């Protein structure tokens, strides 16, 4: 593990050379960006990364730039030693865990990536500036690591959409791969923020995945019926504070209208106690 940009670049160079020495002519570097507090969702991304390339780099950085003033930056779970051990068990030794000072030596960035219109809806509406901060740090990580491939989870579906769009818009030479959501046995999407939930809140949190399950069960009856089915599950749980439930076209992240057929992503976000959770499922609406 290193917190230094210079060191991680040098180690990646060494790893590329070692792979070449093993007979791999153009070794592929795969980056998995995370904020740490690693769970099986993150580790699935790491496993997927290994199937895609030769040198796997995991970054761990709780990026202050993507947290709003009233958000959980100071309390966000930080478990660096455990994270590094989990990655070592999976034979990942190229771990980049910079300090905020290493990433933002001037205290703040002058130049930022702006997510544009699609960064102001859903998560972006509730968390103004979040996606600009996220894209800025992802762009910095791309420049630091120079990966051939980067792996992101579908759990953060709008993030994945915006990263793919940034890469296209700014001609960044990296392939972006999405990995399906990893869930607990009871259906709850794994999240570092689940650590904040009491037992009772965790039960209430299951409403999100159950609502999406209801949407999937109703997909044959059209998008309106699917969203209504999800809404009625959410309406039945007073302990959650719904932020949004929406159906979007995965190619544009724009809303779909009643008659729409094809792939639709149903998004949900809600607060359970003071913890904000998000989830989504992809429907095939016919
Ligand atoms: P985070 O540490 O929350 O920023 O997440 C780092 C990466 O892991 C992001 O690309 C997330 O979408 C992904 N991720 C987080 N939770 C899950 C999950 N349950 N299943 C799949 N990917 C996930």
Protein architecture, described:
The protein has 286 residues and is an alpha/beta fold. The protein folds into two domains: 5-179, HUPs (Rossmann fold, 3-Layer(aba) Sandwich), CATH 3.40.50; 192-285, 2-Layer Sandwich (Pantoate--beta-alanine Ligase, Chain: A,domain 2). The protein contains nine helices and eight strands. The strands form two sheets. A five-stranded parallel sheet has the order 3-2-1-4-5, with helices on both faces. It has a three-stranded antiparallel sheet with strand order 6-7-8, covered by helices on one side. The longest helix is centred in the last third of the chain and has 19 residues, at 199-217. The mean pLDDT is 97.
Quick take:
The chain has 286 residues and is α/β, with parallel strands linked by helices. Helices cover 38% and strands 20% of the residues.
State the main characteristics.
9 helices; binds adenosine monophosphate; Rossmann fold; three-stranded antiparallel sheet; single chain; Pantoate--beta-alanine Ligase, Chain: A,domain 2; 286 residues
The proportion of residues in beta strands is 15-25%
Count of spatially separate domains: 2
Morphology call: globular
Q: Briefly, what CATH class of the largest domain?
A: Alpha Beta
Output the strand order for the largest sheet: 3-2-1-4-5
Query: What order do the SSEs take from the amino end to the carboxyl end, as H and E?
Result: HEHEHEHHHEHEHHEEE
CATH superfamily annotation of the largest domain: HUPs
Approximate helicity band = 25-40%
Tell me the radius of gyration.
19 Å
- Small molecules held by this entry: adenosine monophosphate
Low-pLDDT stretches: none
The helix tally amounts to 9
CATH architecture label name of the largest domain: 3-Layer(aba) Sandwich
Largest sheet: 5 strands, parallel
- Give the overall pLDDT as a whole number: 97
Number of strands: 8
Task: Provide the structure class.
Answer: alpha/beta
CATH topology of the largest domain: Rossmann fold
Distance between the termini: 48 Å
């Amino acid at each position: 593990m290193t917190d230094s940009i210079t060191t991680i670049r040098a180690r990646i160079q060494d790893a590329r050379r070692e792979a070449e020495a093993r007979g791999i002519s153009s070794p592929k570097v795969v980056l998995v960006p995370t904020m740490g507090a690693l769970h099986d969702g993150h580790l699935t991304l790491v496993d997927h990364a290994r199937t895609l390339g030769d040198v796997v780099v995991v970054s761990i950085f709780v990026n202050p730039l993507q947290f709003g003033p009233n958000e959980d930056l100071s309390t966000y779970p930080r478990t660096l030693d455990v994270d590094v051990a989990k990655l070592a068990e999976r034979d990942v030794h190229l771990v980049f865990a910079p300090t905020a000072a290493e990433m933002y030596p001037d205290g703040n960035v002058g130049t930022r990536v702006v997510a544009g219109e699609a960064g102001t809806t859903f998560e972006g509406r509730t968390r103004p500036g979040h996606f600009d901060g996220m894209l800025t740090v992802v762009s910095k990580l791309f420049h630091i690591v120079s990966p051939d491939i980067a792996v992101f989870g579908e759990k953060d579906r709008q993030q994945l959409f915006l990263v793919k769009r940034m890469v296209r818009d700014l001609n960044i030479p990296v392939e972006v791969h999405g990995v399906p959501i990893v869930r607990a046995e009871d259906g709850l999407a794994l999240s570092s923020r689940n650590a904040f939930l009491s037992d009772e809140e965790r039960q209430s949190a299951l409403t999100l995945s159950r609502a999406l399950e209801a949407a999937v069960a109703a997909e044959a009856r059209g998008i309106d019926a699917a969203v209504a089915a999800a809404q009625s599950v959410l309406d039945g749980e007073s302990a959650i504070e719904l932020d949004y439930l929406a159906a979007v076209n995965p190619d544009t992240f724009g809303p779909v209208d009643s008659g729409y057929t094809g792939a639709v992503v149903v998004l949900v976000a809600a607060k359970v106690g003071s913890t904000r959770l998000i989830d989504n499922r992809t429907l095939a609406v016919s």
